[in-house]
Amino acid sequence: MIDLTFQTAYQLGLYGNSARQPAANLVTAEDDFAAAAELKCQEAAGVTKTEKVTAEGLLREKYPNLVYHVFDASSGYWRNRNDYPHYLLYQQDLDPAQIENWKPSGPDPAYAESREIRALGSVPPGSRAAVIHPKVQERMERDPAYAKEIAARIDAWFTFDLLRNEALMPGRSWELSQCVAIGEDGTIVNAVTSSQPRITYSGDPSGEEKEDFWDLRARRNAHYTKIWRKKQIAHGMEISRQFTAEASAQAARAKLARMIEGGKLKKLLGDTITGVPTDSILADI
User: Fold this and answer.
1) Bridge-partner residues for 207, per DSSP?
2) Is the whole-model pTM more than 0.85?
């Protein structure tokens, strides 16, 4: 997840759409992507044979500027190196070999000294990227239902990650970018959300004896929350903005609760995320 950047309630669509829509076209806030994907599959199966249902197409309907790659992005370097070139993941013309075969050439640089971390500052705010394992891509091309499942999993992670950050500290996600990697078994093997120029990861980078990843994340969030609150006081933020932020956080928490209720979100995300049991990640909310 991220340290200081969060999605506003209006960006996330937490307040819904007040415009009247025909019942056939209405998609609820609860199941928006899954329902849309299901409808797309039904249309392709029953209405037209010319339109092919793909995960990329389904995702682009919601994220028009999505960067979509096909290669193996399961490398552990993604999570434990400050010089891993995450910024390349957001480039449409990326040569997969630049990332797929990437290996460190020396000691891990300090966070503040990493050119790759600084390069994240050039990533356009709000960028989204997905990396699909070639075997998953092959299966999706044969099986539209599986394509729908993978697309819904990616969207579920994007939405969940935004909501949990919004619930923690609302209104600070204008610079946020997200990338998800799907592994050979169809699970999320790597996920990263970055602000400019900070970056954090979703998943324990190794099995070494050290501080638990989620404890570390909680401490980091608490630290940056204190900093952010001090800045609020220093700048004398308006009372109206504080009320708006609280309403946004409450709305995010409410939607998170609805997503998690009944196991729906876990079903979308799968049993593990970056090797960590999904249950433990959801319990951390």
Assistant:
1) none
2) no
Per-residue pLDDT of 158-214, as tens digits, reads 989 888 877 776 766 666 789 999 999 999 999 988 875 555 555 544 444 455 555
- d(CA 34, CA 223) in angstroms, rounded, equals 36
pLDDT in tens, 30-89: 456 555 555 555 555 454 445 688 999 999 999 999 999 999 999 999 988 999 999 999
Residue 105 vs residues 81, 96, 102, 116: alpha-carbon distances, Å? 11, 18, 9, 13
Assess contact for 158 and 126: CB atoms under 8 A.
Answer: no
Transcribe 47-102 into DSSP letters. T-SSSPP-HHHHHHHH-TT-EEEES----THHHH-TT--GGGGG-TT--HHHHHT-
Over its C-alpha atoms, the chain yields an Rg (Å, rounded) of 19
| 188 backbone dihedrals φ, ψ, rounded to 5° | -80, 110
Sign of CA dihedral 27, 28, 33, 35: negative
DSSP string, the chain: --SS----HHHHTTT---S---GGG---SSSHHHHHHHHHHHHHHHT-SSSPP-HHHHHHHH-TT-EEEES----THHHH-TT--GGGGG-TT--HHHHHT----SSPPPGGG-HHHHHGGGSPTT-EEEEE-HHHHHHHHH-HHHHHHHHHHHHHHHHHHHHHHHHHSTT--TT-EEEEEE-TTSSEEEEEEE-SS-EEESS-S-SSSSS-HHHHHHHHHHHHHHHHHHHHHHTT--HHHHHHHHHHHHHHHHHHHHHHGGGHHHHHH-SEETTEEHHHHHHT-
Residue 177 CA, chain-centre distance (Å), reads 8
